[in-house]
Amino acid sequence: MNFEGLDPALAEYVPALHPALDPHLNASLLQNVELDPEGVPLEGIPVPDSVHIMEGMYSELHTVVSEVGVPVSFSHFDLHEEMLWVGNHGGHATSFFGPALERYSSFQVHSSDDIRQIQSLENGVLFLTKNNLKYMSRGGLIIFDYLMDESEDMHSLLLTDPSTLLVGGLTSHVIEIDLNTVQETQKYTVEVPGVTIMRQSNRFFFCGHTSGKVSLRDLRTFAVEHEFDAYSGSLSDFDVHGNLLVTCGFSSRMNGLACDRFLKVYDLRMLRAITPLQVHIDPLFLKFIPTYTSRLAIISQTGQCQFCEPTGLANPADIFHVNTVGQLIMSFDVSASKQAMVFGDSEGCVHLWTDSPEITFNAYSRETDFALPCIVDTLPHLDWNQDLMPLSLIPVPLTTESLLSDWPVSNSAPAPRRAPAVDPEILRAMKKVGFIGYAPNPRNKLRNQIPYRLKELDNEFDNFSQVPESPIGREEEPHIYMVAKKYRKVTIKYSKLGLEDFDFKHYNKTLFAGLEPHIPNSYCNCMIQVLYFLEPVRCLVQNHLCQKEFCLSCELGFLFHMLDLSRGDPCQGSNFLRAFRTIPEAAALGLILADSDEATGKVNLGRLVQSWNRFILTQLHQETQEQEGPQAYRGIGSSNFGSSGDSVIGQLFSCEVENCSMCRCGKETVRVSSTLLFTLSYPESNDKIKDYEFAQILKRSICLEQNTQAWCENCEKYQPTVQTRNIRCLPDVLVINCEVNSSKEAEFWKMQAEYAFKKLMMKKGGLELPQSREIPVGEWNELGMAEGGHSYTSIEELKNVWIPYSIKMKLSKNKELEVYNWDESTEVCHHFWQERRPIESTYVYDLMATIVHILDSRTGGSLVGHIKGVTHQQWYLFNDFLIEPVDKCEAVQFDMSWKVPAILYYVRRNLHSKYNLTIKNPIEASVLLAEASLARKQRKCHATFIPLMLNEMPQVGDLVGLDAEFVTLNEEEAELRSDGTKSTIKPSQMSVARITCVRGQGPNEGVPFIDDYISTQEQVVDYLTQYSGIKPGDLDAKISSKHLTTLKSTYLKLRFLIDVGVKFVGHGLQKDFRVINIMVPRDQVIDTVYLFHMPRKRMISLRFLAWYFLGQTSTDRAPRRGGSEEGIGSIPGPEGWGCCFLDLID
């Protein structure tokens, strides 16, 4: 603003937002206003103490003091909450809540500069001072503090969108600031310096200048589109509404400034001035109040307020006076709802005017957060007239001397107080970093309050030393862990050597192969083991081979082949789970878990594995249906997948079901279908749980009867319908989903186990459960007690048992099903009778596997399986890579507090006699022949490999050099310990990107015959280009120029080489085969990394071995691996390293 003509005494005074608003301006600006020709001043009009608020009229509702004696510099109605913000010349901000103007918060924004503008945002409030922009919460916490150059003198700001802000002042530029990054993004030069007011419409930015001009600027480029020269002196305020722009300001008169009583009005459609509006007061502020009409509120500095239409004449009757008691008006604002106005004066008072007693500042305000009330503990009142009042209520001063009440040391003994149990909610949400746990505050207790329960027993002091140091161990009794050790979730401890120094044999002393658990969605490991021990299924998938890239049956066959060759070493199901993640049906059923869901334990694993069980049986049934023609993999030809026909899965699990629907009108509808498994259905009874045998519940679940609403074709509407289900045949493998998903089902299992235990005790002669006793060492050894803290006496073996080891199912001639629990004594009695009189459609099923959900709040729970081994006598526990023989009673004992049944597998006796269990390798030599690339832009020249010819097919003992390159799908998760060492929590997930095989003999020795780039649809985090040579785009079929194939295609080539019996030569092949997810017998691997390796020393790199023994440096070979485009003769890429492998073993 132009300060010429003002009092020189103002030179040292810091101006407010608009210098024209300052009370120290020329006294001529503060002259009285005459309302009529007789010269009666407005101050002479009496203002009543109480004004009746009429519709559409404003009157004073409340007046409060912001800070006594400090002028208000800016006032602003919050746009998101029912709050009013006031800033003053001392840099202090105060907020008031609601129409009652209750003080909400008050804090210092700047130590000396005045607050020149306030803008409310969703999460806080912006405050503008002279050269500082501060973003603070509504409670006064600083979110960010943006300092500008000291030469800046800012006066105005404009929020153009939620994350962009324009700031202008007495400079030649306007700054654009990004609120997300708190960085200056643009600096726009203005032709007329001094931007003190900014507004925005849907067409222009409006900038008011101290010279009295208003410029209209483009919304995108901030270029000047038009300019209005409103006043010759200075501009005090303007506002925009619709197509009208109204201004007020000062004109130059006799070398000074005088307030102009003409409001300049401009039409934004024609971009020209229209008839000015004359008012009866000295206008200093103005704002549109567009409610029913486009009214203008015009305010003078002495407190007069006039309302008028911008296109009509001003009426003196529409003038009101703000009772400022002689103080000057310094700020003015109108609420977003147009129901309230606020005035700030030079004495620090805030006046709220409203058009009704009950108003809101915004149409839709959110709820305001208030601080918790401060609870102050007051001292109790003491009545000196009461002789029985205890003197201990009077606080005594601290003293260093001994008190009379101090007990001597000889008469006291320290009694340790056990720490209270940690809230289970804290333990559930806790995240451990090293040995320290972090968890958010659940806020279910008041601050500094904790319940104190003195429940210490005498004998507990003796066991005080058994309390674990970590608070994690205090949830249950300190010396008792509910979950046995062998059932707990197992994890791999990674060191700086990775898996090389981890002893898997400690967890598995059998020859069965476990499965590693760190791969995403590996919750199904126990179910994979169950399918592996079903020999018809195992033989089926190993004989199966189709042309589908992501076929679960093929991948399951590859995995089972690895389990066959493992001899006790753990395997990975990475390729199978990779194909599993690509199945759309699996994602639709919610079977694909995110890493966070598995880590936090928020998933109901019992319900999840039952859904996975239903899905995998259906998927295998669809993929292994009988096809016309051979199933061998022939390359890229068409597939007959999906043709009609039965499968071995259907023969094993399928059961033909007859569904009958009976409407109450008498119409019966019968539909025949098939099912692969059954789900237990429990009795719906609110009374006391009755005694049921497992066979009764199973029959009730198979032959299900339920009432439901269904569409009746006869009635042509939905009617109550009785639906019954009957089976026409019995399956060879009976799969049962237990469906224990709530406490109601868990209580049912618990009560049935108690009933079964009581009946068994009575059957044995009225025995009762003896009291707990110490088990002698000899008896302990006889019971085969395994590590984990569980001991089973002959009576303990009968506890928590409800399901039988065998069941008998009979289907009568009229298709009625009979189910019985079948035990060994019954079997001996009926053995002779069965041989003499065989019964048709009568099967005896033996329990083959149980899948249980282990409930453990410390680890989030896990899934384990009990499986009857190949001997059909010994049972084994499969807990990922932990495999341990267990007693058969453990397979049927379910303590519902931590061991919940999920799936049961019953297998028909003499099952194997019905099926062909011969495994014929379906992989033929044709997989090594030339095949087309998946890449659309593959170059025709500079081939990086020559495929094998028919006369070059590998034989037993042939040497093949192999090298593989990988990319990273997930980064490694590690933590840095206090001693500086790094501990790996979760290793990086690698995926094979390139596989190269080199001939080891023959005329083309050293020439690659496989150089496949593996196409991937998964997100790659790091291509490891500096090591692998793989670049972004090399694995994308749309843009790659490499020889691109599927992982399955290249996997089959390696499988054929392994099955033929070739010997692979390479450097670090153990890691290569692990990432490829293939098992190679040790006698077929020649690894140069072990040729010159000393125990407990690091591995020597191939580059050093090639230099030391062969005299070849990195300049002789490629500086980067993977550059096979340069030709085979120079041997620069992985094929060059393959030759180096062969040279080293020579």
UniProtKB/TrEMBL annotation:
<dbReference type="InterPro" id="IPR030843">
    <property type="entry name" value="PAN2"/>
</dbReference>
<comment type="similarity">
    <text>Belongs to the peptidase C19 family. PAN2 subfamily.</text>
</comment>
<dbReference type="Pfam" id="PF20770">
    <property type="entry name" value="PAN2_N"/>
</dbReference>
<dbReference type="InterPro" id="IPR028889">
    <property type="entry name" value="USP"/>
</dbReference>
<keyword id="KW-0677">Repeat</keyword>
<dbReference type="Pfam" id="PF00929">
    <property type="entry name" value="RNase_T"/>
</dbReference>
<keyword id="KW-0269">Exonuclease</keyword>
<keyword id="KW-0539">Nucleus</keyword>
<keyword id="KW-0540">Nuclease</keyword>
<dbReference type="InterPro" id="IPR012337">
    <property type="entry name" value="RNaseH-like_sf"/>
</dbReference>
<dbReference type="InterPro" id="IPR048841">
    <property type="entry name" value="PAN2_N"/>
</dbReference>
<dbReference type="InterPro" id="IPR036397">
    <property type="entry name" value="RNaseH_sf"/>
</dbReference>
<keyword id="KW-0507">mRNA processing</keyword>
<dbReference type="InterPro" id="IPR015943">
    <property type="entry name" value="WD40/YVTN_repeat-like_dom_sf"/>
</dbReference>
<dbReference type="GO" id="GO:0003676">
    <property type="term" value="F:nucleic acid binding"/>
</dbReference>
<dbReference type="GO" id="GO:0006397">
    <property type="term" value="P:mRNA processing"/>
</dbReference>
<dbReference type="GO" id="GO:0005634">
    <property type="term" value="C:nucleus"/>
</dbReference>
<comment type="subunit">
    <text>Forms a heterotrimer with an asymmetric homodimer of the regulatory subunit PAN3 to form the poly(A)-nuclease (PAN) deadenylation complex. Interacts with PAN3 isoform 1/Pan3L and isoform 3/Pan3S. Interacts with ZFP36.</text>
</comment>
<protein>
    <recommendedName>
        <fullName>PAN2-PAN3 deadenylation complex catalytic subunit PAN2</fullName>
        <ecNumber>3.1.13.4</ecNumber>
    </recommendedName>
</protein>
<dbReference type="InterPro" id="IPR038765">
    <property type="entry name" value="Papain-like_cys_pep_sf"/>
</dbReference>
<comment type="function">
    <text>Catalytic subunit of the poly(A)-nuclease (PAN) deadenylation complex, one of two cytoplasmic mRNA deadenylases involved in general and miRNA-mediated mRNA turnover. PAN specifically shortens poly(A) tails of RNA and the activity is stimulated by poly(A)-binding protein (PABP). PAN deadenylation is followed by rapid degradation of the shortened mRNA tails by the CCR4-NOT complex.</text>
</comment>
<dbReference type="GO" id="GO:0031251">
    <property type="term" value="C:PAN complex"/>
</dbReference>
<keyword id="KW-0378">Hydrolase</keyword>
<keyword id="KW-0853">WD repeat</keyword>
<dbReference type="GO" id="GO:0046872">
    <property type="term" value="F:metal ion binding"/>
</dbReference>
<keyword id="KW-0963">Cytoplasm</keyword>
<keyword id="KW-0479">Metal-binding</keyword>
<dbReference type="GO" id="GO:0000932">
    <property type="term" value="C:P-body"/>
</dbReference>
<dbReference type="Pfam" id="PF13423">
    <property type="entry name" value="UCH_1"/>
</dbReference>
<feature type="binding site">
    <location>
        <position position="1072"/>
    </location>
    <ligand>
        <name>a divalent metal cation</name>
    </ligand>
</feature>
<dbReference type="InterPro" id="IPR028881">
    <property type="entry name" value="PAN2_UCH_dom"/>
</dbReference>
<dbReference type="GO" id="GO:0000289">
    <property type="term" value="P:nuclear-transcribed mRNA poly(A) tail shortening"/>
</dbReference>
<dbReference type="InterPro" id="IPR050785">
    <property type="entry name" value="PAN2-PAN3_catalytic_subunit"/>
</dbReference>
<feature type="binding site">
    <location>
        <position position="963"/>
    </location>
    <ligand>
        <name>a divalent metal cation</name>
    </ligand>
</feature>
<dbReference type="InterPro" id="IPR013520">
    <property type="entry name" value="Ribonucl_H"/>
</dbReference>
<feature type="binding site">
    <location>
        <position position="965"/>
    </location>
    <ligand>
        <name>a divalent metal cation</name>
    </ligand>
</feature>
<dbReference type="GO" id="GO:0004535">
    <property type="term" value="F:poly(A)-specific ribonuclease activity"/>
</dbReference>
<dbReference type="InterPro" id="IPR036322">
    <property type="entry name" value="WD40_repeat_dom_sf"/>
</dbReference>
<dbReference type="GO" id="GO:0010606">
    <property type="term" value="P:positive regulation of cytoplasmic mRNA processing body assembly"/>
</dbReference>
<feature type="domain" description="USP">
    <location>
        <begin position="513"/>
        <end position="909"/>
    </location>
</feature>
